[in-house]
Design goal:
Elements lengths: L2 H12 L14 H15 L1 E4 L2 E4 L2 E6 L1 H8 L3 H18 L2 E2 L4 E6 L8 E5 L2 H4 E9 L2 E4 L4 E5 L6 E2 L10 E5 L4 E5 L6 E3 L2 E3 L1 E4 L4 E4 L2 E11 L5
Pfam family, one: FHA
Keywords: Phosphoprotein
Organism: Microbacterium arabinogalactanolyticum
Length: 226
């Protein structure tokens, strides 16, 4: 079953069947969904092999007549569009540049039966942040130097008896990351190889004791915190 098929069935469950009479002419809800998906695909920006971002703010413009028809669905339509676009982004491996927002408005410049979609610029709304993932939890690198170990004073504390209190540190300048072992008892490994210090590419895994950690660089909406 395709995404749009799922959308249509979801919409059918969400709204009263009497609404079907409303859509005998003009734009159809599934066409709005398709236009949103095309906009996300068109504006998706490949930053690296592991990073593809797409806008988070979408404005759907319809003719006044079509807009009035869509208003009859209330929140059901917007909820379905939100769910569809979220699922499409996840399937394609996209990250939104911020919290997803979809709005619909009437525009006398748009012809009946057509849909226009505008989205925010990716570059103007996103910045990048380094994070370390441990057991499914992300720890943002909020300073230039972050110590990792089992000590309570470590920036990232791991409950691993095989790690030292101050086992290793990550140096992060906002663009690049370096992992440095701090003279630990059992050493630090990157991709299975013991290191004293090594550059960390996005997606690199490293091991401290028996704990595996992953370094990632993720998009963050400007002004937001993780």
């Amino acid at each position: 079953m395709g995404l749009l098929d799922s959308f249509e069935k979801g919409l059918e469950r969400a709204v009263n069947s009497a609404f079907a009479k409303t859509f005998r002419s003009g734009i159809q809800p599934v066409e709005i969904a398709s236009a949103l998906r095309r906009e996300a695909d068109t504006k998706a920006a490949v930053v690296s092999r592991e990073r593809i971002i797409t806008p988070s703010d979408y404005l759907v413009r319809l003719s006044p007549e079509d807009y009035e028809r869509m208003l009859s669905l209330g929140h059901a339509l917007n909820d379905e569009l939100f769910a569809l676009l979220t699922k499409h982004a996840r399937t394609q491996g996209y990250s939104f540049s911020g919290p997803l927002h979809i709005s619909i408005e009437g525009d006398a410049q748009v012809a009946t039966g057509t849909v226009r979609v505008n989205s925010s610029s990716v570059e103007s709304s996103v910045s990048w942040q380094g994070v370390v993932e441990v057991d499914g939890r992300e720890h943002p690198l909020t300073s230039a130097r972050t110590v990792i170990g089992r000590g309570s004073d470590a920036g990232i504390t791991i409950a691993d008896a095989g790690s030292s209190r101050r086992h290793a540190e990550i140096l992060w300048d906002g663009e690049r990351a370096m992992l440095r072992d701090l003279g630990s008892t059992n050493g630090t490994k990157v991709d299975g190889q013991k290191i004293r210090e090594a550059a960390l590419a996005p997606g690199s895994t490293f091991t401290i004791g028996r704990t595996q950690l992953t370094f990632r660089v993720v998009p963050v909406s400007k002004g937001a915190t993780r």
